[in-house]
Amino acid sequence: MDGVLASFPLAIKHSHEGNLECVAKGQNNSNIEPTVSNTHYLRVVEPVEGAHVDVYSGPVKFFEGKTLELRCQLAAGNHVSYKWLLNGRLVSQSPLHYVADNRLLINRTTSKDSGSYMCIATNHFNKTVFTANSSEVVITVKGVVSNPDISFTVLKKDSHSYSAVVTCHSMRGTPPVTFALYRNRTELLANTTVEERNATFKVPLVLGQHLGWLQCQANNGDRIAYSKRIPLEVVPVGGPVMMHYEYDIGENYAVISLRFYCKVVKGSLPRYQWFLNNTLLHGRGSFYNVVNQPPEQSKLLLSVGRSSAGTYHCEVSDSYDSTTAISSKRQYLDKEVLNRLPVLVVAVVFGCFTVVLLLVFVCCWIGVVFRRKQYGQKSLWSLEMERMAAAYEGELDLSEYDEDADVVKTARSGEFDQASNASVDEWSQIKGPVDQQDEPVEES
Ligand SMILES: *[C@@H]1O[C@H](CO)[C@@H](O)[C@H](O)[C@H]1NC(C)=O
Ligand SMILES: *[C@@H]1O[C@H](CO)[C@@H](O)[C@H](O)[C@H]1NC(C)=O
Ligand SMILES: *[C@@H]1O[C@H](CO)[C@@H](O)[C@H](O)[C@H]1NC(C)=O
Ligand SMILES: *[C@@H]1O[C@H](CO)[C@@H](O)[C@H](O)[C@H]1NC(C)=O
Fold first, then answer.
1. 331 lies in which domain range?
2. Residue 259 — φ and ψ, nearest 5°?
3. Does 264 lie in the same domain as 227?
4. Does residue 173 sit within a domain?
5. Cα separation, 180 vs 170, whole angstroms
6. What is the pLDDT of residue 23?
7. What is the DSSP track for 413-444?
8. Which of 212, 286, 348, 407 is such that its CA lies 20 to 30 A from the CA of 426?
9. Whose CA is nearest to atom 14 of ligand 3?
10. Residue 352 domain-assigned (yes or no)
11. pLDDT tier for residue 301 given thresholds of 50, 70 and 90
């Protein structure tokens, strides 16, 4: 029997994929056994088409820490592989980024995961590559605003009118941020929403008065962040301005460096200025360095040399009003003046040492003389002790004597003499060598 060729033109759909086989059997004739061909796997490749990103986890703006899940959806295509791009750069699998099939999963997002996402779907048939790019989806992972710092400066409007310019500033957090300024926790003074992480508010101010406690609040949608509370109080500078110095001594007891300190009795926003021969010294110079530590004090560090000679003083004024300057006393210093200092110190130390020595000597001498006078008339108490010691040595029962006070008295007076005689002997024995030592001194 000749071979019969049959062909079936077929509009291929991707549902046709699978094992194909053809069956030949005799028509209306059950006597002919049907024959079945070998199976062929028909792989149907449908080019990718119409990719788009589906934000499966929900909103495109959210706070860090939440989960982001993106899926790449296609209008058509099979046997597809997917790639994800963030701001044009490939997102690869990592402990934080899970990439599988058409999914991109980021479990604990940070602000670094913000940006423009797109997916690229590809498949290929016999070396022809089909690609579909999605459009970009912008994801914003917002940073929660951090607790703001609060500070204020004083603005002088005219001679008697001032205001505090309060700055609230958060280090982190995604704008827009709503800042609010409260007084005494409950009184809202002002609020504003800004595209930055800082805001300023003007508050009327009366110098020298405590006007309550200020606090900033910041909120960018997740929770309220609070600053610490600061008192709205500005004390103008006042009282004397004190200047003193300390110095370091190098080799040969020469003063090599010096630290001036300037302090003012009161003032919450003092500005310190240093002068040498009435010339303002600021910042850092060849032989000096100004170190401000407001509001407590200011330091002027000097290295002692020819150029540092002159008359020093400091002035303190309110930082917002330079017309209030108060001056310290003036101090003339040069190398000669300074190098007298160590000599003076040595003299003082030596003097003190001498005085102490003298005192010790005088005390000892008085002590010796006093004891010499005393030994003849020893205190009754110590005599009594000696008498008792003597009584025990003689194994006397004192209770017997107690029965007859007179007997005891007699016994005591007898012992008194014995005891004092004994102690005199002892004393002269002990003092003997000392007296001998003393005598030549008295003679000379
Ligand atoms: C086969 O049998 C069917 C009915 O069973 C009939 O309709 C058809 O015409 C027959 N075909 C041939 C080629 O005889
Ligand atoms: C596949 O590619 C080869 C060579 O590139 C070609 O000979 C063949 O005809 C192609 N097959 C189809 C089904 O296009
Ligand atoms: C916030 O700070 C920046 C600089 O740090 C400054 O340029 C800007 O004016 C400030 N904004 C406000 C509202 O104070
Ligand atoms: C300051 O004045 C003194 C004289 O009073 C002078 O010796 C010294 O060189 C001056 N110092 C400076 C830095 O001008």
1. 238-339
2. -125, 115
3. no
4. yes
5. 12
6. 84
7. HHHHHHHHHHHHHHHHHHHHHHHHHHHHHHH-
8. 407
9. 199
10. no
11. very high
